[in-house]
Amino acid sequence: MRQSKMFIPTLKEVPADAESASHRLLLRGGFIRQNAAGIYSYLPLGYKIIKKIEQIIREEMDRTGAQELLMPAMQPAELWHESGRWDVYGPELMRLKDRHGRFFALGATGEELVTSLVRDTLNTYKKLPMAVYQIQTKYRDEKRPRFGLLRGREFIMKDAYSFHADEESLDEAYWKIFNAYKHVFDRCGLKYRAVLADSGAMGGKDTHEFQALAEIGEDTIAYSDQSDYAANLEMAPVVGQSVEGSRHTAQERIGQRGRQPVPAGQELALYGFKTRTETILVLVRAEDEVNDVKVKNVLGTDLLEPIENDQLPDPFYHDDKVRILADQGIRTLTGAGFYNQADDTTYINVDPERDLQITHYHDLRFVKEGDPSPDGKGTIRFAKGIEVGQVFKLGTKYSEAMGALFLDDQGKSHPLIMGCYGIGVSRTLSAICEQYHDENGLMWPKALAPFQVHLITVNPKKQEQAQLSEKLYQELLSHGFDVLWDDRKERPGVKFADSDLIGCPVQLVVGKGAGQDLVEAGSRQNASEGRTEFPASELLRTVDQLLETAK
Ligand code: 9G3
Q1: 202 CA to middle of ligand 1, Å?
Q2: CB atoms within 10 A of CB 264
Q3: Does any ligand 1 atom lie closer than 6 A to the CB of residue 140?
Q4: Distance from the CA of 366 to the center of ligand 1, in angstroms?
Q5: Which domains does the chain have, with CATH numbers?
Q6: pLDDT of 121-161, one tens digit each?
Q7: What is the residue with the minimal CA distance to atom 16 of ligand 1?
Q8: What is the Cα–Cα distance from 90 to 106, expressed in whole angstroms?
């Protein structure tokens, strides 16, 4: 492609709110343009990469036997009423009315729609298992869209849904698609970890997230430094705490007005939460932090509102509308100290079992770096991640709610067992940028690069340079290479800067050596090594070699 003919509006500067490298570089390189907060156009270069990622996803999903289809973004509100989610989601679920005043949800995800699509025909075990997928634009009215495509309000997602007669069949599909995701991300050149995650409001049990490793990532991954154990921090279990049996503090609990010093490692901390029906107090060691996702899972609730410190009820005053949960970390604490907000008194020799009627312990705190890995191998380290994929065992949450039933081989009726699986296509593009850039621009993995070769003519006005460039361009095209030829009448500095921004793996420069049929070649990923000169007759071998060594 001749760059003089392409729509690649590179930028020198970017808006100050472009905080992440991927956001800045995708804007500067002319890959995307913002149209509104969290809403972007994919310009020709950017869309070429989106299509490459989608193609890799299609190949790997087709290999699992899943069938591609395309469902509407305008989803009848009735479906979301049937699933009960119309009222569960707030303003994040975008809604619209048609000319007849009928309500629609703008598709944030496809569980309701796909369940309504299959329930009339997928009604016998003979037709199971079955899986479908789509690659479609999704809409979620994020409160704070940020980091460009990483958290947009309109984004491209591959979402897949599988239907099964029993758990074994679901389990088989889950791991088949799990492995397909590994192939997708490996082929994209993404550095990632598959982490155990919390299924939260989605219901079901097993779920894994695919987390692309990046400092800008909003998720924290707890992983073992000696095994492939990895879990989302929200659900990473704490092990090696609950020493069997507990100890009793003989001394009586005594209190002293005001906030008094408590010996380090001896102090209790109290957190308070409200569910729809109760007040929950959580006791942890003062040096630990309550993990509200673990509290939600123990309580079996998805709604947990923190209570302000100064509103905490007095834990020593027994009130049957207040439930106290204790983290296993306090089990081995003797003679604990505790500052009680409610009566502005510091107590010592507190025995939670005696003084707070604690009868059993849960794992309620966040795991910490240095804690033993739950698989018994090595210790936990943290890393930041961008969630680019997720696989869920959904179970029957939607099929029950929406009457998607099948007859088994005994003629008995059951709700379909479902799995759902997502990849953030636009998010993957951004995650790749976060992992493959330097201060001058992007450095696309060769499988995704918008072009394999960036051919730069330093001065097109020079006859020998123009002729040699044309010759190389035609030779590369005729051998099937994808080439971006910078034939523009721009200053050399602008061309080199734009080439570094755009980030194709191989850079070829036709300049002052053209008269001697000499060309310069360089690898964008090893830009520090600079370019080397070679005779034009060695073009194909040189390009092949540079592509071979590129990631
Ligand atoms: C909504 C809104 C936001 C949402 C959802 C629904 C996340 C919602 C979870 C999923 C689960 C899986 C299929 C592909 C893989 C992920 N945010 N989720 O359901 F209405 Cl506004 O999307 N869906």
Answers
A1: 8
A2: 8
A3: yes
A4: 25
A5: 23-236+381-434 (3.30.930.10), 252-362 (3.90.960.10), 444-549 (3.40.50.800)
A6: 999 999 999 999 999 999 999 999 999 999 999 999 999 99
A7: 422
A8: 13
